[in-house]
């Protein structure tokens, strides 16, 4: 079993790509070319390791789980806002577009919070070029049809976290909401909380889909060190979010958010 797992890990992407790059290293002539090959091999191998991906994620997942002793649900919260992620296009079993796994897990956790708190739900997410229905409409449909929960507000024009905040803030102001529970993946929330708070809202993070957890290091096995696509995806998301936070800081200096009254 161990040998099978090792062979499979090396023959499946990205393992096979790393092996091909190592083979190419011996075919490349010249110091500069070989230095470049070593750099590519090192970066791809490192980013494809789960411990590295989790280490990159850990500083982003700073908010504890809501409803725990470390973060009790505040009694002053007035609404729950669920941020969209992506969609599955043209799902034949659903007769068209539906929620992707990331958006669905956020909706599921938002529904759990709504049932336990009785707070109204708001969803936010627009559509990209070529897409038909705004993703927030799909979220509202799932909450109604699959969870039996009504949605108090649907923001349908945003395409980024920045626009999620600016678009949803007007809906919340209309309904007199100033304190929200903000639902998203744990690694995405630091940036999202900053932007929503910049709109003058009191924001309590409601994280889901944690990548890291206390004591994760002790649960590692040798398989976790093998290159894998899921580990590479974790590293990709972490790097993407670190860059996103940096960009939003710069954008905040250039284009301050219009705080709502």
Protein architecture, described:
This protein is an alpha/beta fold. It has a domain at 79-215 and 238-254: HUPs (Rossmann fold, 3-Layer(aba) Sandwich). It has helices spanning 2-11, 15-27, 31-47, 50-57, 101-117, 135-145, 161-174, 189-197, 229-254, and strands at residues 79-83, 87-91, 96-99, 121-124, 153-155, 179-185, 202-208. It has a five-stranded parallel beta sheet with strand order 5-4-1-6-7, sandwiched between helices. Strand 6, helix 8 (189-197) and strand 7 form a beta-alpha-beta unit. The longest helix has 26 residues, at 229-254. It is elongated. The model has no long low-confidence stretch (mean pLDDT 91). Residues 78-244 form the DUF218 domain. Keywords: Membrane, Transmembrane, Transmembrane helix.
What structural keywords apply?
Rossmann fold, 261 residues, elongated, 7 strands, transmembrane, Cell_Envelope_Assoc, membrane, DUF218, two-stranded antiparallel ribbon, single chain, alpha/beta, transmembrane helix
